[in-house]
Amino acid sequence: MNSIKISLLLIVILTVSCDDSFFETSPATQITTPEVYSSGNNIDAFINGAMRYLMENSTSQDNPGLPTIFLTHEVMGEDAFARDGRYGYRDSYPYRDPFDNTTRRALFFWTLQYTSIDHANNIIANIVISEESSQRLKHLKGQAYALRAYNYFNLVRQYQFTYAKDASAKAIPVYTDPTTPATEPKPLSSVSEIYDLIIEDLTEAEKLLHGFERTVKNRPDLNVVRGLFARVYLTLGEWEAAAAYAAQARAGYQVMTPEQYTEGFNDVSNPEWIWGHPQTQTQNKGGASYLAYIETTPYTTDANGTNLYYGYNSIMPDPWFVQLYADGDIRKSLFEVATQPAEALYRHYRNKKFRNKYPHHDGHIVLMRSSEMILIEAESKARLNNLPGAVETLNELRIKRNLADLSVSDFHNGSIIEEILLERRRELWGEGFRLYDILRLQTAPLRRESTEMFVDDEGKTVGIRGHWFTTFPDGSPLEPNSNYYLFPVPLNESNNNPNL
User: Fold this and answer.
1) Cβ-based neighbours of 398, under 8 Å, separated by 6 or more
2) Which of 127-136, 156-165, 372-381 has the lowest mean pLDDT?
3) For 372, phi and psi rounded to 5 degrees?
4) Helix, strand, coil percentages for the chain (3-state, nearest 5)
5) With 0-12 CB in 10 A as exposed, 13-18 as middle and 19+ as buried, what is 432?
6) How far apart are CA 74 and CA 72, in angstroms?
7) Residue 363 predicted with pLDDT over 90
């Protein structure tokens, strides 16, 4: 399969940049596959490079690794929009990109994730586990299984509708062996076949990762694997399993305090981050990074006192979304209107949830939090008609957002599900979940033009900017299960794979 050849040299470059002692015998230009797997240290460095590749590889400034997909998912919903005229996501927001299979972004999404799968396949194929194998080798292979499952779980939700709609629908090709130029391109597998593989991989990862204590949160451990299980079973509608795994995944990760919520979502040391990607200043993509696209907090002012911003600041919260927060909610305090006519974000709502660690702009990327697991657990209990359990679980999160406990007597099973789904939107905004939920729930975004007004610093009453695209590119209204929500197989792949 031409589009997913093994990119071993790239991984070598990445890992050498992390650890100059990565290879014991050969320089990067002479590396051979057996040398990569000749020691636990080498395999460990390979996995480190594989994680960095997935999170950091970029074909252009508008494609900063996997977080590109997170941001695309946000602007394809209703709670965020791409600022008019700004670089990065202005074509994803109106469903033009990546719907078009000829675009650079469509090719990037496909290639990034299948290359990451190939990295995992190489690790899985080259680590042979026996009774004599060390725990370290088991842990390394378990991380590779988790990485492969993570990629396939993302892909099956990006390229086909949800399992409940049609489990037999053809989605994406599956590769479980390392690819070479001679690899026969695979046909499309069904949604159910891909979920079977995901569960098999996570099951293997769970068995192999017992006893693994990571030193950096970018590595999948048992909590991460169980969190992935919870996401998978939530999508499959297997509520008991989803609730159980969510509870296990968040064990040991306390929900952050209201004060911690205001600190900028930029550091894996946050107590509720189960999984995250730490970055140094040199790893961060600067003004085109994930955080710099979604960060809208001014970092300084000029001589005239006008707010100045770092990065593209392309992704904005919608005014109607801001109204979903109750007064007193600590999260609502992070929204404020840019009132200076001379500042770049004038007439927009700023959101201070994400801040890219001024002055070095080396903020970390969040991948999984215990709050998400609480919401999975609460939703699953609600769908199992366990109303008291759902309300009790949801209150665990609410109390940490300065909100009063909800009362069971105020809800029935249907209304508590609606409240939990709203809470997912409020809590997980900007983290890449919105499009996945739209597809999982088979709903449509409700985009409305803003009607909110404010008085600016010059005393003028003006409107707050919001959605400027409220239909699909063909002018039709937004509706559930539209092909506009699905990513296309890129043209290059269609040309190179006659078996699709």
Assistant:
1) 404, 405, 406, 423
2) 127-136
3) -60, -40
4) 45, 10, 45
5) buried
6) 5
7) yes
C-alpha neighbours within 13 Å on the C-beta side of residue 128: 3
CA dist list (Å): 42 to 8, 25, 46, 50, 67: 13, 11, 6, 12, 27
Rounded to whole angstroms, the Cα distance separating 435 from 98 reads 13
For residue range 138-158, list pLDDT tens digits in order. 999 999 999 999 999 999 999
Closest listed residue to residue 378, CA positions, set 410, 326, 413: 413
Please state, in angstroms and rounded to a whole number, the distance separating the CA atoms of residues 73 and 487: 11
Asked whether the predicted pLDDT for residue 71 surpasses 50, the reply is yes
Please give the full DSSP string across 205-251, using - where no structure is assigned.
HHHHTTT---SSTTS--HHHHHHHHHHHHHHHT-HHHHHHHHHHHTT
Amino acid found at 180: T
Q: pTM for the complete prediction? A: 0.93
Best CA proximity match to 261, nearest among 107, 428, 74, 48: 428
Signed CA dihedral, 49, 55, 59, 60: sign only? negative
Say what angle helices 104-126 and 40-56 make with each other, to 10 degrees.
170
Going by pLDDT thresholds of 50, 70 and 90, the confidence category of residue 10 is very low
Provide the 8-state DSSP code for 58.
Answer: -
